[in-house]
Design a protein that fits this description.
This protein has 183 residues and is mostly helical. The chain has six helices and no strands. The protein has a single domain (3-182), classed as Rhopdopsin 7-helix transmembrane proteins. The chain starts with a helix and ends with a helix. InterPro entries: GPCR_Rhodpsn, GPCR_Rhodpsn_7TM, Histamine_H3_rcpt.
């Protein structure tokens, strides 16, 4: 890139980070200040705002490593939101009766954070120790496993294709249920 383009990209990146921080701070503050927003389904949106806020404030090396964890968690969180909507639309009566451990948003969020961490966390933390050396040069900023296609294939299948399949399933059944009700 030319110097002019690099400056433009740097400015754009900083503006995007500032907008991300600002919008997510507003979501977090709104949740804290307005009692009407303190119901179960909004906990998931608060969790997304906290994740986006963390990505927006990141520094290069930390951001590159945390990006995998936080973006994976975001995808799982969106699947969880779609599942809750699916249950509320298709199984309204039974969801009201189901107030067990799986309906607790805190337990669900902890579970998706743990799963997201288990997907990338060990690789982020221990890759260079298992390999015996770091493959990332000092002036570079990327994850150690970036060029390991077998790891990326497995991880991206679990991170992207499985959530995509689940969201498609939930959305399809929501649509069918709504169409059935309209008839």
């Amino acid at each position: 890139f030319s110097k002019k383009m690099l400056v433009l990209l740097a400015v754009q990146k900083k503006l995007l980070a500032l907008v991300t921080i600002k919008k997510n701070v507003l979501v977090i503050l709104a949740k804290k200040m307005d009692r009407n927003l303190r119901h179960r389904s909004n906990y998931y949106f608060l969790n997304l705002a906290k994740k986006d806020f963390s990505v927006g404030k990141g520094v290069c090396k930390l951001w590159k490593k945390m990006d995998y964890l936080l973006c994976t968690e975001k995808k799982f969180n969106i699947v969880l939101i779609r599942k809750k909507r699916f249950l509320s639309v298709t199984k309204k009566k039974s969801i009201l009766a189901q107030q067990g451990i799986t309906s607790n948003p805190v337990i669900n969020m902890v579970a998706i954070w743990v799963f997201a961490f288990l997907l990338y966390g060990p690789a982020i933390l221990f890759w260079e120790h298992v390999a015996g050396h770091s493959v990332v040069e000092k002036n570079q900023c990327h994850a150690e496993f970036l060029k390991k296609w077998h790891f990326l294939l497995c991880a991206s299948t679990l991170e992207f294709f499985v959530p995509l399949q689940k969201k498609t399933y939930f959305n399809g059944h929501i649509k069918k249920d709504i169409q059935r009700r309209q008839r």
